[in-house]
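haha ok so turns out i had the wrong file open the whole time. this is the CORRECT one, sorry everyone. sequence first:
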Amino acid sequence: MTEQIIKNYLSDAVLSFRNYKTMAERAMAQVSDEEFFEAIDAEANSIAVIVKHIAGNLRSRWTDFLTSDGEKADRNRDTEFELMDDSRASLTEFWEAGWQTLFGAIEPLTVEDFGRFITIRGEPHTICEAINRQLTHYAYHIGQIVLLAKHFRSADWKTLSVPKNKSAEFNKFLAEKEAKGSRYDAVGEFAEKENSERGE
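then structure:
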């Protein structure tokens, strides 16, 4: 029973990470290069900066996940909030490499690995604690990316989830689906259906 719970947890964690990655990318696909780098006020982070920070965190936390501290000695977190010679293409490449590091680290985890401890900034974490810490961290920042992209698109925004005043239709959509797949797939399919009906 315990083994199955661990396998279920890991499967859902991987699925959740993939969903958040996809959600961010679908939001970013809707913004121009100018909007990608635009900060809405002097204290705000642009989408570009958030992408750089998430990618830097991904690289640090998940490289040699089981055998080295999650805060790597060569990480300079402060520079993740500065744009220097960064382009959209280079940041996208950094982002993709970071996510591949994450999936390469957690997809092969075994049930036995969940009995181990890893460290982040010298603080011990169970594998579940480490995964949950990063899952919530990325969700927080990806929510910011979606909010900024939606701000820039305004009325032209292509929804990524169940649109306002469409909950009843979504429930009906779920009931009528023969193969429901994951909860994320259903939401995405419904969002695309709604966007298509709006002519987007």
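The chain has a mean pLDDT of 91.
again sry for the mixup
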